[in-house]
Amino acid sequence: MQAFTRKQRLLLAVVPPLAALFIRVLGATLRYRDLNAVDEAGHTVPVGIEIPGPVVFAFWHRTLLVCAHRFRNKGIAILISPSFDGELIARTVEYLGFYPARGSSSRSGAIGLRNMAEAYNAGHRTAITADGPRGPNMIAKPGVVQLAELTGASWIGTYYALPSRRWELKSWDRFMIPKPFSTVTFTWPAHVASDDITKVQAALDQAVAMAEKK
Question: Which residues span the domain enclosing 136?
Fold first, then answer.
């Protein structure tokens, strides 16, 4: 078990509940709308949380906060770094009803993917930031395809979330914080086969284009 300093233990006791409260309060002011693509069979693509688990979804890192309120209390498994910052995030999302699978897509990628696969096999919906944890921004890495291979998932879903009014941080991912009382547009492209990261990239690009064209 990871050892924390006294200062870190204090931060872990204080920050996660306050962060979760902030997300709940901010989220209560937001409106959500969905734009759903039509797949090749002529079916409207459902909103991801309407599909029971286990499933695999990919999204961009910059939308993490935007999604945290809407997708709360669904037991969705998300991959979180084993670092101290990751511990802060893990404890925060636990307050919001997510299932944090610990591990990274970089140094401890194998462990992280195995933990996500275990969550999938237990029936959880799983979601991976395709460009996390350090980018480049909005460039998909192979982790989500590797997860699908581990679990036998035949398709991967993607989505994007764009607030009508927002702050964008000067971080590597241009992290978005929705302004109170804004409308968040969620876009849902057709699901793609799980065997090729370029297909996932194309679907994520389509999700962004759908939101920006609205």
Answer: 6-213
Tokens of 58: 């990919």
Residue 148 within any structural domain of the chain: yes
Q: Are strands 183-188 and 160-163 parallel, antiparallel or unpaired?
A: antiparallel
Model confidence pLDDT, tens digit, residues 5-61: 999 999 999 999 999 999 999 999 999 999 999 998 999 999 999 999 999 999 999
- Is residue 76 domain-resident? yes
The pTM score is 0.92
* CA gyration radius, the chain: 17
Is residue 160 within 8 A of residue 47, CB to CB? The reply is no
Relative orientation angle of helices 143-151 and 109-121, to the nearest 10 degrees: 40
Count how many domains the chain has.
Answer: 1
Q: Per 3-state DSSP, what percentage of the chain is helix, strand, and coil (rounded to 5)?
A: 40, 20, 35
Helix axes 197-213, 143-151, angle to 10 degrees: 120
- Is residue 98 in some structural domain? yes
